[in-house]
Specification:
Strand content: 15-25%
Largest sheet: 5 strands, mixed
Number of helices: 4
Helix content: 25-40%
Number of strands: 5
Oligomer: single chain
Order of helices and strands: HHEHEEHEE
Strand order of the largest sheet: 1-2-3-5-4
Length: about 150
């Protein structure tokens, strides 16, 4: 149950989200045939990044949702953060690539997310505009294995 996995993940991130007054909302999420540790890694990295790269002075607002198509689930994690220049949309998933060296991190979280999603036979991407936030999307096929 990806909703339960998200709820557990939010408990593990509660101190981090509480410190910056982040609000995380989510729609009902599906039950999947995949390894729940994979989902934990995805949710932890993407929500942590949404908190870390928030707009200074604005509490992070993060929303998690999923929609079903004929062959897969597409998850979305949208935030009101700093946003990313479109030219970096692919590079941010490279190992040790960091756009903002002033923020904490070593540049492996999104690389891990890409590997996890690829192992589940899905894909991951970002839609973003500087100053307007980002939406990270990833797919998980209906038949994804554990």
């Amino acid at each position: 149950d990806s909703g339960e996995v998200l709820a557990w993940t939010l408990v593990t991130l509660s101190e981090e989200t509480r410190e910056c007054n982040a609000v995380v909302t989510f729609d009902p999420l599906p039950k999947l045939a995949c390894n729940e540790n994979a989902l934990v890694q995805l949710f932890q990295n993407l929500i942590s990044n949404a908190v870390r790269y928030c707009t200074p002075g604005a509490p992070p607002r993060i929303h998690v949702s999923a929609i079903r198509s004929a062959t897969e689930w597409t998850f979305s994690i949208a935030d009101n953060g700093m946003g990313i220049e479109p030219v970096h949309a692919e590079r941010i998933f490279e190992l040790f690539h960091r756009l903002n060296p002033e923020r904490e991190g070593v540049g492996i979280g999104l690389s891990i997310c890409r590997k996890v999603v690829e192992n589940l036979r899905g894909r991951i991407w970002v839609e973003s505009e500087p100053g307007k936030g980002s939406t990270f999307r990833f797919t998980i096929p209906h038949y994804a294995a554990n």
